[in-house]
Design goal:
Layout lengths: L5 E10 L2 E10 L6 E7 L7 H7 L8 E4 L12 H13 L1 H16 L4 E11 L1 H11 L6 E5 L17 E7 L7 H13 L3 E7 L12 E2 L4 E2 L2 H19 L8
Parallel strand pairs: 3-4, 3-5, 5-6, 6-7, 7-8
Antiparallel strand pairs: 1-2, 2-4, 9-10
């Protein structure tokens, strides 16, 4: 595999009075505007672990933007802090859509970014975020949700979804029951979306997170399902973004 020299660029952006800071990750060999994958964090906020996961897309010929949704320097370290940070967005999905719109606009405005080729992926709460990007009609070509919450905003009016959607889901996830998967399929079909769902048996919530180890709470890493998901994502991003600038094996 060709060695990647990762460049990291902090990027500040705003939503109202809130100042946020994301990180643009790109291969030093990349020249000019490139296709970009926005990586949406879970309830904990932007983290070094998320950046490490985001680097997975760089050898495929893309760059990654590690999103910050909560505010510069704001993150959680306990379940109680996670809930306190995430809850306002779950309770006000219109506000969440506005915040996500600010993120996408900030990314599209970067000189390093080909604004016609932006996709988004998200984990846990971030999985809900990318689905809401699609529901809101934000200018992304595709979104991929990993062990995300699947329920739509309450009372939302149906609208056509133009971007591609992929969902990677643990069938035993207690936070997204089988009936939620069926309901999402019906929702996306009614919206005319190009969608796919890959469900993995014997797989719990947070199956992509190597540090997850609370099966008593329905949360556990699953290496087999994670690798199947990364493999599926590579093909999905190729559909959404083209072959990238320098894909290597």
């Amino acid at each position: 595999m060709t060695k990647i020299e990762v460049l990291r660029k902090p990027v500040e952006y705003r939503h109202g009075a809130v100042v946020m800071e994301g990180i643009l990750l790109r291969d030093a060999a990349t020249g000019g505007p490139a296709p970009t994958v926005i990586v949406c964090h879970g309830a904990e906020g932007r983290s070094d672990e998320l950046a490490r996961m985001a680097e997975r897309v760089l050898p495929w010929g893309y760059q990654a933007f590690v999103m910050d949704l909560y505010g510069k320097g704001v993150s959680g370290s306990t379940p109680e802090e996670f809930d306190a940070l995430m809850r306002p967005f779950l309770d006000d999905r219109a506000m969440l859509a506005d915040r996500l719109s600010a993120v996408v606009a900030a990314v599209a405005g970067l000189r390093e970014v080909d604004e016609s080729r932006i996709a988004a992926i998200g984990f846990c709460f971030g999985g809900l975020c990318v689905l809401d990007m699609a529901r809101a009609g934000l200018p992304v070509t595709g979104v991929a949700s990993f062990h995300g919450v699947l329920t739509p905003p309450p009372g939302s009016a149906p609208r056509r979804i133009g971007c591609k959607i992929a969902v990677y889901h643990g069938w035993d996830d207690p936070f997204a029951k089988p009936e939620d998967v069926v309901a999402l399929a019906a929702e996306l079909t009614a919206a005319g979306a190009d969608w796919q769902v890959r469900a993995f048996g014997q797989t719990l919530h947070s199956f992509m997170a190597e540090q997850a180890n609370r099966p008593d709470l329905g949360i556990a890493y699953n290496a087999r399902s994670a690798e199947r998901s990364w493999s599926g994502l590579r093909g999905f991003l190729a559909e959404c973004l083209g072959t990238g600038s320098s894909i290597v094996d």
